[in-house]
Amino acid sequence: MLIAQGGAFAGWALYLKDGKPKYCHNLAGLVRFYVEAESVVPPGEHQVRMEFTYDGGGLGKGGDVTLYVDGKKVGEGRVEATIPMIYSGDETCDVGYDSGTPVAEDYGEDSHFNGAVRWVQLDAGLDDHDHLITAEERFRVASAIQ
């Protein structure tokens, strides 16, 4: 596991499966969208990156996923829909392993990465997304997780 957010009932994860970078987006435990690289990451220090290009046009839309190793595209695929708000009220965002329930179905409880994750960078884009949710809905969601 490189990074995982959420768990078995919603979330996403970027990890290595059989040495290949793989991404999973878990849509409420109903369907999982997978994107896997075509090649194995060679031994040594490397940058593994996933980019998600959101379709836009409101909440819960899909997008395109591209996987990179050291800046070279190694895989691409599609996520048809996303979780519009919160992945989980009791799962975490983990680096180097998934401490909660597994986001994906192809790794078990021992998801520890056997290398070193030197840093993780999450960018949400430059757009202001406040217009996508009303103030009333934001308050309702915030109150529900208190």
Describe the structure.
The chain has one helix spanning 135-144, and strands at 3-7, 10-17, 20-27, 31-36, 48-54, 63-69, 72-79, 93-95. By secondary structure, the chain is mainly β. The protein has a five-stranded antiparallel β-sheet, with no helix packed on it. Strand 6 and strand 7 (72-79) form a beta hairpin.
Mean pLDDT: 86
Measure the end-to-end span. 29 Å
Radius of gyration: 16 Å
Q: What share of residues is helical? A: under 10%
Major β-sheet profile = 5 strands, antiparallel
SSE pattern, N- to C-terminal:
EEEEEEEEH
Q: Find the structural class using helix and strand composition.
A: mainly beta
Question: Strand percentage, roughly?
Answer: 35-45%
Write out the strand line-up for the largest beta sheet, numbering strands in chain order.
4-3-2-1-8
- How many strand segments? 8
| Unreliable parts | none
What's the tally of helices?
Answer: 1
Basic shape: globular
Highlighted features:
3-stranded antiparallel beta sheet, mainly beta, 1 helix, 5-stranded antiparallel beta sheet, 146 residues
Short overview:
The protein contains one helix and eight strands.
Topology summary:
Blueprint: E1 3-7, E2 10-17, E3 20-27, E4 31-36, E5 48-54, E6 63-69, E7 72-79, E8 93-95, H1 135-144
Antiparallel strand pairs: 1-2, 1-8, 2-3, 3-4, 5-6, 6-7
